[in-house]
Design a protein that fits this description.
With about 450 residues, this protein is α/β, with parallel strands linked by helices. It is built from 19 helices and 14 strands. The strands form 3 sheets. Strands 9-10-11-12-14-13 form a 6-stranded mixed beta sheet. It is globular. It binds manganese (II) ion.
Length: about 450
């Protein structure tokens, strides 16, 4: 697939506008995709001799845009902005590089794959779109591709395979030697035992968070627990033996097709500045964790080449991974079932989406989307997650969250498979009832 020509022409026109403005105000989202998009834009700005100011946001509010009124700076919104396009377009110089669904039509400087016949859920993410903008500013920015790749993996657009415009960019990056792909076990870490025990994705009951269980599993496979993960990846027979037994375990624990397919994976190996080798997944997790630990600027600094920040992101990642695991081990007992959905009250801020997604993929009822509610002051922050099998059956969580959110005086939106909302705390039950009803309509339940 080629990248849509009209979109590329628009990116070029937006890049031309950007090149003549010296001050760039960049807004981006605090997840891995957003931070990577922001990092790519920051480096693009620096290389073009611009001053930039970056704001990394959990949510974009109308007031943020209202405050920009009258500025002569270039305003770039990455991984967000489409929903406020009617306000943003009134600014003198603004570019939106978003991939979330919206109700607008194509207009100058509003760049969103959904407006160009592509699917923003799978074909292009915030960071691959920011990357296209970056190479439209200067083709020498191709070397920033590793960050686009990490963002793509962060938004899970590599599952079940890299598609659409992402694929076109990826293929070119492979040709340029900017990424190497290797098939192997989907465990991150040096030694197999530690990598399996700490793994949340795949989450394998009796192995994840269970060192004795993992040890005896490896024993049954005849594998030394200290074997480097790389050595197993390089040994086809051993790799297949372990993988086939793990797939069986995931199926036995009620895991989804997506979950079972996570055991073996395509690993995308990147090389960062200073010759640092990392997998796209590790880099994306590091960026994601810096955001979740309320320090997305550390992730940004790492992308700008600061080595201590990269190290700090690695620590954030370990902490976050362990924290998610503690919650996952306890999740099954907390989930409540309604007719068409299941939900839980999440205890740890910024973990709701991850827990909902992982729980659904690996051990919760695969027939019902999962809603995580996290209390924040007088609001609930809602994260909802589905599976592709549910989306193919008609589920559109973007519509569900927007509609149910608005009906109880909140806001919501996102992607069909993963979406969010913010609602007044006292509307919890009304909101859940609405979500249950709309999901039931979508999935054709009685
Ligand atoms: Mn994104």
């Amino acid at each position: 697939m080629r990248i849509d020509n009209r979109m590329m022409e628009q990116l070029t026109r937006s890049a031309e506008m950007a090149k003549v403005i010296d001050e760039w105000r960049i807004f981006t989202h605090y997840d891995a995709d957003g931070i990577c998009a922001g990092g790519i834009l920051a480096r693009t700005a620096l290389r073009a001799g611009k001053r930039f100011h970056m704001t990394i946001l959990r949510d974009l509010y109308q007031s943020t845009i209202a405050n920009l009124e009258g500025t002569s700076d270039l305003v770039i919104l990455a991984d967000m902005g489409s929903s406020y396009w009617d306000l943003i377009k009134k600014l003198d110089h603004a570019v939106v590089l978003d991939h979330h669904k919206n109700d607008f039509h194509r207009e100058e400087h509003h760049i969103n794959p959904n407006l160009y016949g592509m699917d923003g859920t799978s074909d292009l993410c915030g960071s691959t779109l920011a990357f296209l903008f970056s190479i439209a500013v200067d083709p020498a920015n191709w070397d920033l591709f590793p960050y686009a790749m990490a963002g793509l993996v962060g938004d899970r657009q590599h599952v079940p395979e890299i598609r659409g415009a992402n694929k076109a960019i990826f293929d070119m990056a492979v040709d340029k030697g900017l990424v190497t792909s290797v098939h192997g076990l989907n465990f991150q870490g040096d030694r197999i035992l530690d990598a399996m025990v700490r793994s949340n994705d795949p989450f394998i009951v009796g192995i994840s968070g269970d060192i004795d269980g993992a040890r005896s599993f490896l024993d049954e496979c005849g594998v030394d627990p200290d074997t480097p993960v790389n050595d197993i990846d390089n040994n086809d027979d051993l790799c297949r033996l372990i993988a086939s037994r793990l797939v069986l375990k995931v199926i036995e624990q009620g895991g989804s097709f997506e979950g079972a397919s996570e055991i073996m994976t395509q690993k995308y190996l990147l090389e960062l500045d200073g010759g640092i080798g990392l997998s796209a997944r590790s880099l994306s997790h590091m960026m994601n964790s810096s955001g979740r630990k309320d320090s997305p600027s550390t992730g940004l600094a790492a992308i700008l080449g600061d080595m201590p920040s990269l190290e700090r992101c690695r620590e954030f990642r370990e902490d976050y991974r362990d924290g998610v695991q503690v919650e996952l081990l306890d999740l099954a007992g907390q989930v409540e079932r309604m007719q068409n959905i299941q939900f839980f009250e999440n205890r740890v801020p910024a973990m709701g989406g991850a827990l909902a997604g992982l729980g659904l993929e690996y051990f919760l009822d695969r027939r019902a989307p999962v809603i995580a509610l996290t209390k924040a002051g007088d609001k609930f922050k809602i994260s909802s997650r589905g599976l592709w099998s549910l989306v193919h059956a008609g589920l559109d969580l973007s519509y569900v969250m927007r509609t149910a959110g608005e009906r109880v005086g909140g806001v919501g939106g996102g992607h069909p498979i993963a979406s969010g909302a913010t609602i007044p705390v006292e509307k919890k039950q009304q909101f859940l009832d609405l979500v249950d009803e709309i999901v039931g309509e979508q999935l054709g339940a009685i």
